[in-house]
Design goal:
The complex is a heterodimer of chains A (109) and B (463). Chain A is of the alpha+beta class and 109 residues long. Chain A has a single domain, classed as Nucleic acid-binding proteins (OB fold (Dihydrolipoamide Acetyltransferase, E2P), Beta Barrel), CATH 2.40.50. Helices cover 26% and strands 40% of the residues of chain A. Chain A has a 5-stranded mixed β-barrel. The radius of gyration of chain A is 18 Å and the shape is globular. In chain B, helix 15 runs antiparallel to helix 16. Chain B is an alpha+beta fold and 463 residues long. In chain B, the strands form 4 sheets. In chain B, strands 7, 8, 9, 10, 11, 12 and 13 form a 7-stranded mixed β-sheet that branches. The interface between A and B is medium-sized, with 18 and 26 residues.
Chain lengths: 109, 463
């Protein structure tokens, strides 16, 4: 019994740690990241949505971001934002998608 | 309605539609389709002399004579071309577009320079003149809504010279017209080292009352012969000699409110004070310490906020500017008869100062961007500017801070404008003491006595 209780306590502590300190996004939570675009997928000049894959500078993992705002879509269309650009991004997980709330090039002149 | 009347109405509608269509389409389409687009030469078929005239504008020269700023030589021109201050510690001269030294970590290089936004091809650069310069003007970057920005990248030509590419395609040329917000923001949104760094605003329907009305930048900054009207920002020195103000008769006039009490305010309070209660962008930078980025190059350490995320500071401003090595900001007083209480975006930056003279030094970004070595940037700039003993200057340079007041002239709001109690209350938005009011006056200025009766009456009417 003692062993079972210890295991349960350990599991609870581990779960709590993940919830508190883990980088796992939950719906509605705004996540910030900086990363370099490795891929942009947009379907033509009239597209109302696009995806951009960013390589997270901290984790080096790819993160696929869904972009719906007109200003950023326009920057994809006229290539003001292209693959290789470093991006400062805020996103929320909505229906399993990382939906962009802010998508800005870090560079300027 | 008779058949004749119906026919007349239909004809009128058809004519109106045709006229509207013709008005939205720039003439010359057939010529461009037939002959191709050859740069300014093509534009000049209908706009003769325009390219040459453009060479005499601030957009091309990045400088002009400046008459309202202390400690400047009235015979010389000042602007992004040659200014030394702490938002952009480089300028077009010392931080000219070039390939920076290879990163000691990655062995890679890249192009960088303050003049990347200049609308020439870099061979004809900031302030250049003559036929080659006129032919190098990138008309379409400001006038086309279908510009391919993959073309506008620096590259080296066969002579090893750095050239800024341009999109001179027929496709881009067929999409010309009055500059849109996007055309202006291509350069203006990323000035100072990144998006919303320098000016701290976006011009969208969510952030600006004028944008929400469908207005574009050039509706207020209405240029004539490419001379662009600007405001009186204490930190925006170069100008085309033409200015824009909210109070212009074609805009809001000197009595913009229905309420006489509010109009009385506008004699001493700038419109922006109530109607631009927020600002944003960079609030501090350190050019003496550069941070490594993901690509292993370096950038100046920059602290910043989004548009509308910071609050302005307020000061009396009469349109003239104090300019010292540690301060650039408004001059004015309550009693000079010209000043108004005006909001400013406050910014502080650290950079190197000349130990001997106390003057602020400028920096070539190539070296610090490559290796983080900021003194190497100071040395390169000192050499470019022909300073005596550049090695000694760079070695002994002393870090120091400069405070800069930027004009806060965008992010206009009607619905979230300041109201009576924002200012006329203890610890309100305005620090009346700092603004020169006596203790006795402050007691009066911070009491609801000033507005109680009137606002109570209004509140009753509204509810």
């Amino acid at each position: 019994m003692k062993k079972a209780v210890s295991v349960m306590v350990l599991v609870a502590v581990a779960a709590l740690s993940i919830l508190c300190f883990g980088n796992v996004a939950s719906a509605g939570e705004e996540i910030k990241m900086v990363g370099v675009i490795t891929k942009i997928e947009i379907a033509g000049a009239d597209a109302k949505t696009a995806t951009a894959t960013l390589k997270d500078n901290k984790t080096e993992q790819p993160v696929v971001i869904t972009v719906n705002d007109d200003l950023t879509l326009d920057k994809f269309k006229d290539h003001r934002i292209v693959e290789g650009d470093e991006i400062r991004c805020k996103y929320e997980v909505i229906d399993g998608k990382n939906v962009s709330k802010l998508f800005r090039k870090t560079a300027g002149c | 309605m008779s058949k004749k009347s119906v026919t007349a109405v239909v004809l009128c509608l058809a004519l109106a539609a045709t006229a509207a269509l013709a008005a939205s389409e720039h003439p010359g389409k057939e010529s461009i389709e037939k002959n191709g687009y050859k740069g300014p030469e093509t534009c000049e078929e209908c706009h003769p002399g325009t390219a040459k005239a453009f060479l005499d504008t601030v957009h091309w020269k990045h400088a002009s004579k400046v008459t309202n700023v202390d400690n400047l030589n009235p015979k010389l021109e000042y602007g992004m071309k040659n200014r030394i201050y702490v938002m952009c510690n480089g300028n077009d001269i010392v931080n000219n577009l070039k390939e920076i030294p290879k990163s000691p970590i990655t062995g890679k290089s890249k192009f960088s320079g303050c003049n990347t936004c200049h609308p020439g091809n870099h061979l004809s650069d900031v302030g250049s003149t003559g036929p080659a310069a006129a032919a190098a003007v990138d008309c379409l970057v400001c006038h086309s809504t279908d510009y391919d920005f993959r073309q506008r990248k620096p590259f080296k030509n066969e002579k090893g010279e750095v050239v800024m590419g341009q999109d001179r395609s027929v496709k881009a040329a067929l999409a010309i017209g009055k500059p849109t917000v996007k055309n202006c923001m291509v350069c203006h949104e990323a000035a100072g080292g990144g998006v919303i760094v320098k000016r701290g605003f976006t011009f969208t329907k969510d952030t600006d009352a004028h944008a929400a009305k469908g207005m574009v930048c050039v509706d207020c900054h209405k240029a004539k012969n490419h001379k662009m009207p600007s405001g009186h920002d204490p930190n925006n020195w170069a100008n085309d000699g033409v200015f824009v103000s909210c109070a212009d008769t074609s805009c809001h006039g000197v009595k913009p409110h229905k309420d006489a009490d509010l109009n009385r305010h506008s004699a001493k309070i700038a419109c922006q004070t109530c109607h631009i209660p927020r600002t944003g962008g960079a609030f501090a930078k350190d050019f003496t310490v550069w941070e490594q980025t993901a690509d292993k190059f370096y950038e100046p350490t920059t602290l910043k906020k989004e548009a509308n995320e910071t609050t302005p500071v307020y000061a009396w401003y009469n349109g003239t500017v104090k300019n010292t090595p540690h301060f650039i900001g408004p001059k004015g007083s309550r009693k000079d008869g010209k000043s108004k209480i005006t909001p400013f975006k406050i910014f502080q930056g650290r950079a190197y100062y000349n130990k001997q003279t106390g003057q602020l030094l400028s920096m070539d970004f190539a070296q610090p961007m490559s290796s983080g070595d900021t003194r190497a940037g100071v040395l390169s700039a000192a050499k470019t500017l022909g300073l005596k003993n550049p090695e000694k200057i760079a070695k002994e340079a002393v870090p120091g801070w400069q405070t800069v007041y930027f004009g806060s002239n965008h992010l206009v709001t009607k619905t979230k404008a300041l109201y009576c109690a924002n200012c006329h209350a203890p610890n309100g938005v305005l620090n009346f003491k700092d603004l020169g009011y006596s203790d006795k006056e402050i007691v009066k200025l911070t009491s609801p006595e000033l507005y109680m009766e009137k606002v109570a009456k209004k509140q009753k009417e509204e509810w």
